């Protein structure tokens, strides 16, 4: 690990030196590309040395360089690695910021799947932080991931995040939001024969949320959906 640490420090110094280079032949972006490669490699070495905080900072430095070269894919990728390193260093603040930036970069570049993955990582981090006051942030990040996965036509991944939006919303007492998401999960489940077995669960959760907010009319309507998902026909009228 000591060797990896020394190699990482040397690479950081090499990267900074790249930025001081001057060329009579132009090629201004080349020094940023060279520096980015050094900082990125330094991040990898810091990870091997288990110096996760320094790894995160190295990846952030690489992101700065890739931004200058207009390489959105590389920028988002090293920001994601920075988030992973800061997470191992238990630096929640910098980890959250890195994942949030990665999601924004990927979204701006039209990389919906990668943006979704970064948003999901952010949401999971906030949820695991066990801070009740931050749960609305987790809901927002899970919802963003859901939207990205939907746009990329990945229904299973979208529904996985949608379930999180629903359950956390219900926990927070945001029953209208929970009802909307549970209902969407139920309708999605009805699209396949195998999924129909889960549809009644989601519609039942919707009903329970309606009862929690004392909306008996909507609860009765959703009970009809539960009946139909079970028996394939409308509920009998009373």
TrEMBL record:
It is found in: Membrane. Gene3D superfamilies: Tetratricopeptide repeat domain. GO terms for cellular component: SNARE complex; vacuolar membrane. Belongs to the SNAP family. It comes from Pelagomonas calceolata. It is a peripheral membrane protein. The keyword Acetylation does not apply. One of its GO terms (biological process) is vesicle-mediated transport. Keywords: ER-Golgi transport, Membrane, Protein transport, Transport. The lineage of its organism: Eukaryota, Sar, Stramenopiles, Ochrophyta, Pelagophyceae. InterPro entries: NSF_attach, TPR-like_helical_dom_sf. This is Gamma-soluble NSF attachment protein.
């Amino acid at each position: 690990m000591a060797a990896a640490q020394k190699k990482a420090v040397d690479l950081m110094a090499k990267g900074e030196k790249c930025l001081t280079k001057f060329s009579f032949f132009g090629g201004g972006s080349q020094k940023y590309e060279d520096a980015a490669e050094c900082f990125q490699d330094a991040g990898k070495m810091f990870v091997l040395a288990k110096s996760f905080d320094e790894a995160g900072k190295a990846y952030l430095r690489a992101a700065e360089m890739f931004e200058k070269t207009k390489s959105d894919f590389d920028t988002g990728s090293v920001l994601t690695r920075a988030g992973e390193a800061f997470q191992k260093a238990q630096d929640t603040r910098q980890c959250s910021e890195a994942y949030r930036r990665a999601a924004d970069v990927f979204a701006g570049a039209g990389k919906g799947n990668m943006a979704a993955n970064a948003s999901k990582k952010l949401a999971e981090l906030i949820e695991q932080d066990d801070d009740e006051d931050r749960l609305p942030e987790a809901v927002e990040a899970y919802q963003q991931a859901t939207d990205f996965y939907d746009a990329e036509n990945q229904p299973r991944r979208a529904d996985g995040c949608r379930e999180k939006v629903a359950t956390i919303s219900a926990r927070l007492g945001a029953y209208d939001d929970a009802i909307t998401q549970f209902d969407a999960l139920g309708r999605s489940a009805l699209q396949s024969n195998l999924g129909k077995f889960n549809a009644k669960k989601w519609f039942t959760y919707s009903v329970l949320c309606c009862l929690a907010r004392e909306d008996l009319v909507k609860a009765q309507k959703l009970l009809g959906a539960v009946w139909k998902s079970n028996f394939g026909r409308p509920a009998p009228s009373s």
